Amino acid sequence: MAVVTDRTSLESELASFMGEYEQANNSHDIERVVPFIAEGATYWFSDGSYRGIGEIRSAIEKTFAKILDEVYEVRDLEWPVLTTDVAVCRYRFAWTGVVDGASRSGQGRGTNLIVRQDGGWKMLHEHLSS
């Protein structure tokens, strides 16, 4: 795979990565989400901090089980740091779903550290807050 080096191409490539990550999460299939996560990643959610794919996987599965029919959407994606091997994005997110039989929704802010690893992009850190 050729590595793109100009900012516009990198933004496009990483926006596609984030879109695929969003789609994987909206599938509610953890096996589609895990390939996006780097070994040694850390995720910070409102309910706690998780280190490594095992802990992150469990946290995401817990969310999938709690919020039924969830639709997660990333909005207003920005790239304050963007290199050929490391990128940082910040964004707003929104979700809708069913919790304990009632329709619910929420929104918040996200920051992700994404690294080029094994020929592709991977999440090394995700911080979501509402």
Features:
single chain, 130 residues, alpha+beta, six-stranded mixed sheet
Write the SSE topology.
Elements (H helix, E strand, L loop, with lengths): L6 H21 L2 H4 L3 E9 L2 E4 H15 L1 E15 L3 E14 L2 E16 L2 E10 L1
Parallel strand pairs: 1-6
Antiparallel strand pairs: 1-2, 3-4, 4-5, 5-6
Q: Give the helix/strand class.
A: alpha+beta
Per DSSP, the total helix count is 3
Q: Over all CA atoms, what is the radius of gyration? A: 15 Å
Mean pLDDT: 95
Helix content: 25-40%
Number of strands: 6
Estimated share of beta-strand residues: over 45%
Report the end-to-end length measured between terminal Cα atoms. Answer: 37 Å
The biggest beta sheet reads: 6 strands, mixed
List segments where confidence is low: pLDDT < 50 over at least 5 consecutive residues: none
What's the quaternary structure here?
single chain
SSE pattern, N- to C-terminal: HHEEHEEEE
Shape: globular
Q: Strands of the largest sheet, in order across it?
A: 2-1-6-5-4-3
